[in-house]
Write a structure and sequence with these properties.
- The chain is globular and about 55 Å long.
- The strands form 4 sheets. Strands 3-4-10-7-5 form a 5-stranded mixed sheet, sandwiched between helices.
- The protein is α+β, with helices and mostly antiparallel strands.
- Helix 14 packs parallel to helix 18.
- The termini are far apart.
């Protein structure tokens, strides 16, 4: 069924009409996802969504995709694009896509399409085997220090693992790699928490305002950093990026801006999602004490535990793409420039892909979409895995009797998961 409607340019186009029952269902679903219960456990809601089919019309336009194979196909295909700066401009003033923070994010690596994406990704050149080996010693030392602090707090009864470890390790790791002053870490972490709202699925006006303010402050911080590194280069990634971009761009101001966007992207990508991974991994294992006990006896399963966490409850539950041409996806007609939201939190538990997908199982063969796919596969995935494995190896060795005090609370988000606390004790 279809009807003629006006698009944002005033042209008449034929669009599919979402049946009222489907629209009511989708609206109800997202209302439930926004509740405290939905944020703590969205997976029963995802199961209801999957029951409606692998592709479901979104109430605000576009489609929601829940099937693993379809999500994987979209992520790997060059026919599906990032909502880049040009696409965002076409959405018109007054939309979330033209908010200052959204405009800024449209110029970072994750929002670029080829050929711009190809050039910037090649210029980044980070987290190869050599750089990870350089970081391994630092990660071991920082992790040990953070767990020392955790042990001191546990001596007095209980401690917030999220605040003491989950939030601290990623900012220390990326801050050390970028050569940032440790005194700046708390502020950068807080700004990242606010900035990520512009990347949410349906941010509110107040959330966008927080993101706009945080983005402006981060721009000031990192443009000043690039300026100082240009004046006094060292053996650090920012200095190396300046050298690379001086060879790619004759205009020094444009070269410095490219380095700024790379540095901003690295910080944002390395902090928020990795913090969530570390705390969620610990939460899941404490909720499954037999798995925790098995892991303490069989530490060789640490990598498997990290991968199963990424499948079972990934840091990012939604990835959005835009159709480059009219097409059919899972039986649904999708028009050029129309957006699809890949519900990877649901897709990772697709029973067509995984047997007993609701079971947290360290012996499962890894298969998840937590790091996206295709040309946009996460550049920081090796570092995130190394941080998680380093932490878990030390954690199960030093705290075999660690237990959960209470269920944690979660930030008010749908796409980007974030624990607000994780209270633990020793049994």
């Amino acid at each position: 069924m279809a009807a003629d409607t006006e698009d944002q340019k005033g042209d008449v186009v034929e669009t599919a009409i979402t049946p009222p029952s489907d629209r009511r269902f989708a609206v109800s679903l997202f209302a439930r996802l926004r509740t405290a219960q939905g944020q703590a456990n969205p997976f029963p809601i995802y199961a209801e969504l999957r029951s409606r089919g692998a592709v479901v019309a979104a109430p605000w336009g576009g489609h929601l995709v829940t099937g693993f194979d379809l999500c994987d196909r979209v992520l790997r295909s060059r026919d599906w694009l990032e909502p880049d700066a040009r696409w965002r401009e076409r959405q018109g003033d007054g939309t979330r896509w033209t908010a200052p923070s959204s405009r800024e994010m449209s110029r970072t690596l994750p929002a670029l399409n080829p050929p711009d994406h190809t050039l910037v990704r090649r210029s980044a050149g980070m987290f190869d085997r050599a750089s990870l080996e350089e970081l391994r010693g630092t990660l071991n030392r920082v992790t040990s220090r953070l767990l020392d602090t955790l042990a001191e707090r546990l001596h007095d009864g209980k401690a917030d693992f999220n605040a003491l470890v989950g939030e601290e390790l990623p900012v220390a790791a990326i801050g050390h790699w970028l050569g940032l002053p440790a005194a700046d870490f708390p502020r950068l972490r807080d700004l990242t928490h606010d900035q990520v709202f512009t990347q949410e699925l349906l941010p509110s006006a107040s959330q966008l305002a927080l993101s706009d303010a945080a983005t402006a402050e981060l721009r000031g911080y990192f443009t000043d950093l690039v300026r100082r590194r240009r004046a006094h280069p060292g053996d650090d990634p920012v200095s190396r990026w300046i050298t690379v971009w001086d060879g790619l761009e004759s205009d020094r101001d444009k070269a410095d801006e490219a380095v700024y966007f790379l540095t901003l992207f690295v910080l944002l990508a390395a902090l928020e999602t990795t913090s969530t991974l570390l705390s969620t991994m610990t939460l899941l294992l404490l909720e499954h004490p037999r798995q925790w006990e098995w892991l303490s006896v069989h530490p060789d399963l640490v990598p498997a535990a990290v991968e199963e966490t990424l499948r079972y409850d990934p840091p990012t539950h939604v990835i959005s793409r835009v159709a480059s041409r009219d097409c059919v996806l899972g039986g649904a007609e999708v028009r050029k420039d129309e957006m699809v939201h890949l519900m990877v939190g649901a897709a990772n538990r697709d029973p067509a892909r995984h047997e007993d997908p609701e079971l947290f199982n360290l012996h499962r063969r890894p298969a998840h979409l937590a790091f996206s796919g295709g040309i946009h596969y996460c550049l920081g995935a090796p570092l995130a895995r190394l941080e998680a494995q380093t932490l878990l190896h030390q954690l199960v060795r030093r705290f075999p009797r660690l237990t959960l005090v209470r269920r944690p609370t979660w930030a008010p988000r749908v796409a980007f998961r974030r624990l607000l606390n994780l209270d633990v004790t020793l049994s």
